[in-house]
Amino acid sequence: MTTSTASPITDAPVAGPDDRQLGAFDEVADAVQAAQTAFDTYLDCTLAQRRAFIAAIREESTREENLRYMAYEAVAETKMGNAEHKVLKNKYAATLTPGVEDLLMEAYQSDTGMTTMEYAPYGVIGAITPTTNPTETIISNGISMLAAGNAVVFSPHPRARRLSVWLVDRLNRALIAAGAPENLMTIIRKPSMDATAQLMASPQVQMLVATGGPQIVNMVLSSGKKAIGAGSGNPPVVVDETADIPKAARDIVNGASFDNNLPCTAEKEVVAVSPVVPELVERMVHEGAQLVNDPEILERLRDLLMSPDREHPRPSWVGQDAGTILQAVGVTPDPGTRLIITETSADDPLVQVEMLMPVLPIVATTDASQAIDLAIDLEHGHHHTAIMHSRDVSRLESMARRSRTTIFVKNGPSYSGIGIEGEGFATFTIAGPTGEGLTSARSFARRRRCVLNASM
Ligand code: NAD
């Protein structure tokens, strides 16, 4: 994992000649109406124009000063994550999210004519975005949804509100400069539960997309509208005795510490066969992990990081640095520590709960078959992400088949599953619950059958 070393930018890059925030509205109804008006004009734009608009989003998002501002400001506003890793996440969102080229048409031809299966826009989409990837989701959803011909109203997380409004303003300015109608992207300036409920109930909103935890995903799924739910996970990583242990250790530490474990795809627990655990732990420590096995310190960690009922992480500790967490429980971090690891049992709440912080428990099993069974159990049926390090092809196949996760990474860090240092396109909305999988433009389009009848 390479990171940029330039210094952070602390002042917002200049928005434009005026101080309006383009696309931002106080009232939900106004944000929806503005997007609807933009959509009505957008319907008459050509595919070449759409391509130019997507290019404008990519260009604006990847300007060096904007990449750095988004990354550092996201850490400052949300108070979570790692800025240098967020630079990379935004860059991949902007460059690797597919555009109009994702809308591949199918054609059927016979003596009676020709039928094409095309992609048509839904109209105005209501997109609810998370605090863990605030700008990445707006960039990636924005490219996909506009490429499919829609307009979008974003409802950002309240903890990422300021930056999200800034980004929608920047993107609107870039889109308008490229000839797009104003307000193809709008945003609710002061998001709240009530505002999100209004967005979901608006008759003009044709599709809802929730990227977040179970509560918001369940809300959109029970809205009665076409909805895409991209929910939580608890990705296990299995390591068996055939694995390249030094590489597995490096990949796991890189993946689990990436953006302080905020990605829903990041390794959340290791399930390893007993004989490899000592070498795996030693190599992980070599890669920047710090081992904490003292039961008293572990209990202090649980008290600090989890709710009293041990069912949720404490929001204030989500996405914090490993060193900060260690200091808070009275442990001096080793220089360069980026991940806390512990050897524990499967029933430990740190194993069972999606923690979203750089604390990675390791559970030992007797053999690979038991490891796969346990990993599937710990994924809790989210069908989100699983990772395995093994050279045994039949075991890799078995875990892929049985886990039925949306992403299955073999012998790599988790982030290679979303296109970062891995083959394939990028997305920050991974729809396990509703089955679209890694979303792209075609996920946000209706299927239309166009029939040309040539019968005599
Ligand atoms: P969150 O569920 O707290 O918030 C997500 C969004 O939903 C925010 O905009 C929030 O304001 C809104 N929201 C939540 N509950 C609401 C309610 N009752 N009424 C109205 N709006 C509500 O999630 P988060 O902490 O921002 O993000 C982390 C979670 O999201 C993790 O569980 C992670 O796994 C998941 N996530 C999933 C994906 C994916 O693609 N599958 C991507 C990123 C994050």
UniProtKB/TrEMBL annotation:
Transmembrane segments: none annotated. It holds the Pfam family Aldedh. The keyword NAD applies. InterPro entries: Acetald_propionald_DH-rel, Ald_DH/histidinol_DH, Ald_DH_C, Ald_DH_N, Aldehyde_DH_dom. GO terms for molecular function: acetaldehyde dehydrogenase (acetylating) activity. Keywords: NAD, Oxidoreductase. Residues 24-294 form the Aldehyde dehydrogenase domain. It comes from the Bacteria. This is Aldehyde dehydrogenase EutE. It comes from Acidipropionibacterium acidipropionici.
